[in-house]
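@channel anyone free to eyeball this complex?
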Amino acid sequence: MSTVVPQGRRPRRITAGRIGVYAFLITAALFFLLPLWIMLVTSLKPMEEIRLGNILAWPASLTVDAWTKAWSSACTGLECNGISVGFWNSVRILIPSVILSIAAGAVNGYALSFWRVKGANVLFGILLLGAFIPYQVFLYPLVRIFSMTGIYNSLPCIVIVHVIFGLPTMTLLFRNYYAGLPLELFKAARIDGGGFWTIFLRVMLPMSIPMLVVATILQTTGIWNDFIFGLTFAGRANLPMTVQLNNIVHSTQGERAYNVDMAATMLAALVPLVVYFVSGRWFVRGIAAGAVKG
Amino acid sequence: MDTVSIQIPSARAASTQGRRLLRTRLPVALALLPTALVVLVVYIGCMVWTVRLSFTSSTLLPKLDWVGLTQYSRLFMNDRFVTSAENIVIFGVLFIAGCLILGFLLAVFIDQNVRAEGAFRTVFLYPYAMSFVVTGVAWQWFLNPGLGLQKVVRDLGFPNFTFDWIVSQDMAIYTIVIAGLWHGSGLTMAILLAGLRGVDEDLWKAAKVDGVPTWRVYTSIVLPLLRPMIVTATVLLATSVVKLYDLVVAMTMGGPGIATEVPAKFVMDHLFERNNIALGTAAATIMLICVVSILAPWVYARYVRPQGRHA
Amino acid sequence: MGSVSVRDVSVAFEAFRVFDGLNLDIEEGEFIVLLGPSGCGKSTLLNAIAGLLDVASGQIWIGGRNVTWEEPKDRGIAMVFQSYALYPRMSVRENMSFGLKMAKTPRPEIEKRVKHAADLLQIAHLLDRRPDQLSGGQRQRVAIGRALVRDAAVFLFDEPLSNLDAKLRNELRVEIKRLHARLGKTTMVYVTHDQIEAMTLADRIVVLKEQKVQQIGTPGEIYHRPANLFVAGFVGSPQMNFIQGRIGMNNGVPEFVKGQRRLSLANYQFGGRPPVDQDIVLGIRPEHLEIATNGTWSDLMIDIVEPMGADTVIWCSDHEGSVQVRTNSSRRAVPGESLTLSVDVSQVSLFSPETGDRL
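replying in thread with the prediction:
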């Protein structure tokens, strides 16, 4: 029996439970980090070392050859200009798509939350349901429509597709945000004589900065990571990075250059990863906001 | 007695009212017009078109004949499609259940007042920022039996260790599940952790005063409170199950053989490579029916029933 | 059994010390109210007593036992929270019996205690409902019931009535007081920022501000002999009037001087020697000022009249400042009218303007 008189802070014991908590978390962290680590070390090794060595080991002879090759001379099918082509294609697709889809979502969200329009709720309801319908249901007729209008397989075509399929999430995001603003604000602006666009541009948009940031994060990662639309609508000249990456990995003749594959993969993951690490909590907020579908 | 003036709407008043209505309503209508068109043409029009095509004998080019359910009976005789359907069920169940369990455990463990909480959160969630193509390529390389995980373990002194699921007919689909879990459980963790942080602190105190063990608080008190977050996460995960395509293409190309074919890939292949539009759209229609039948009870529970109760 | 003793306790958050060497002794069966504005540390103190918060130094004794290192459940306490903290998706009965089940209490005993508590609080008819089917007042009754079944010697209340509307708050306040009387030897420690709750419930009030005890005393002492300016201003509504002035001497008798106005302090019990010729703050409650025909202070002008039903508050002023007077509502008062006040000198308090302490 100890004769210590209990006084002050309870003595902290390092319990088995505590160790268990950290053991679980660290094991999980390793599981999540492992693929990234493997991609990184593989991309920095020469092929001989990959063939012989340990996939987990740090490269014995470190080289960035694979990176330069992946960037500028890896073959995506018949052409061998590296994944840089895809990178720039993705940038050209990304910028107009992000801007237009956010603008559309903001206007829709604003119109739906503050202005009473007949049929608006039906419109919004169908849009929301549309978010859950598999894309495969829409793809073929869309291809036909774009072929008929003559813009199939072009930059405008892929941008329009991204805007169309970004509508549900973007509209929902802004509608929920504006629905959370006090209606009195809108009423005051009406009494002060503001019209539809004046109120939107002068009152609502300046208050939407947080949502604009969230929407930008969401759309940037979403559109950059898209594969199926790029594959179907962009056309050979505009294939985005994800499609190019898949082509590099799956169309190599002869022996596969794993180091080049991994360098290309890392390059393709770079933009969303940078967005993720820079945005931090905003990213989580973005998914949480996008998550309240319906 | 005070006189009460009664306004009689004159023709003039009506016309100013009309003009006012026009002035306020017109911009709203114009602003919503593009969306309305998209809904009408794409979300409704294309859907109807696809369904219609599934009743035709279209191959390379669309035809508008009528062959009834011929394509559907062909579809269910098609090994590739049957395998796809089985695969998506296996993947769906394991992926959703796995993400929820792993995500919940991660959230609970992170909630234990641990050091470097932010670092753990960042590590668990970063895969979600990456595309399925990247995920697929990375896991394909890691699980490659010749140079990947299997070789590492064998070199460590277990020469009989075998982990060749990715090239095995029976097991390849489970490697897709593993890659999916890696990609998606961080998202579940983030949603559930936000839910855990929203739990009233007094509730924890009350349970402590009552002497309820921590694990019991989680199962009996906190878990029921997380139901909305669990529903949200499930819906979100379910939509990515239906869309499963890129991951398979990047990781296994549907192989070995047809072992990891999935419906989305079946549709894409038949529409754009195998020139069998009718069969492809029939498969797409089946996907649509499945999604609607899963979605309907949720929509009913969430929107229709509560309205009925309040009315 | 139910005495509580806080001995030299310090609580720290990270590097920030919330309390430093706090002492408080609570007798068995006493009803103690910790009163103060938000952020004064009253809830922190309560959580420390409950064991929900580790103390950095010092000891906590409950029922003659040193419980500094004990788990909350082993301290012989029960607690009621502001947000009710009822377990969701459990019926009222399950809510009340959950803790007992955890403690492996025999089933018949649980049933007996739940029935007893439910009868006492008149919630027997709600036992099979779930919290989301109850009103706020009913929820708080259930929360009290959950505390009751623990048969604890000490009850801790953390702002239990703050989430209720005014009418319910009054009702439950009386109920809690009745409960305390009926339970007899049960000690209650009650945290609130509401001075009326404190005055009506407490045997003794502990007034806290910025993690420091300002005064400990019976409601009467707190009200009539506030220890400092903060206590004087915090307790009482309408607020005590504070008048800046000076201490003068008139034939060896100290008097309060403000401009032309004077007030003899012959009957005031100074804590020490009267600080002659120094600045001073005189505090007088509105009900201790009376409208009189030949009072001490004349030529005041009525500003605003606030009828409150039972009585009326009259704001009156001269060019130097304003005071509130509480009078019988039968008296008619019109803004602009001039009046004369008499001061009940036995009821004034004097404070040092520098330290704020009572003189």
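from a first look: The first strand of chain C starts at residue 4 and ends at 13.
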